[in-house]
Amino acid sequence: MAQLVQNSWSAGRSDTEGSRARSSPVGVGKSSGKSAVLPGGSVDEPAQSASFCELSNRKIHNLKIEVKWCWFLGEGCPGGGGFVLEAEEMTAEELLQRYAAGEREFNMADLRGVNLQGANLEDIGLGGSNLRGADLEGANLRGARLGDAYISGGNLGGANLEGAALENTALIGADLREAKMRQVCGRALFWGAQMIGANLTDADLCQSKFDGADLRSADLTGTNFEETILDRADLRGCIGANLSSARLIGTILPDGTIGTEERYSWP
Fold first, then answer.
1. Is 221 contained in some domain?
2. What is the pTM of this model?
3. Does 66 fall in a domain?
4. Domain extent at residue 11
């Protein structure tokens, strides 16, 4: 059961910042390893992502923040406590122009629903950014730093995510079909993600959550699933899977049988 925790808060920003920023579903905070979804969300579809910085009166985009309120959801998802801050709204055109000019760090950006289909964004930093519903089909995100980003509902079909950092990244319900995800690393949320035919060779996804994800025909050769939850995921036809330390309750295993034990060695 979620517990509501309230504390005092203060926020102040310059007029300049206010002219280019608006309230966005992005959270910031740090707690004792519990997860955070801010008010208006749910475990399955959080309204805010949880981007995790130390709790202090520090300035982020000239915004001085203390804790306002947090939802602590136990073991449901990775990360820590969160609270609302205002993020810089950015269009796809602005992002691409700044990237072409040599800028690579776009942390805490509000990029909800942007169309970046086929864009070359190699080595980009989008930590804590909100890309909910963004179209990144076929985009080059090789080596991207996506820690704490919220990309739930995004389209990353066929995207190149090789070597991307996904620590605390939310990809709930995202389309990752045929995505190139070799050597991605980080503890991430893939609840209900469509990952048919994805290449996860040598990926390190220890302690990630794949509840209900569709991984049919995915290449899982060398993928680290240690302490990973794959409950109700569909693994039919996937290759190279070592599931010896994963949780597989209700999982459709590569041979079509249903997992019933918390630990299952495959093959």
1. no
2. 0.70
3. yes
4. 3-87
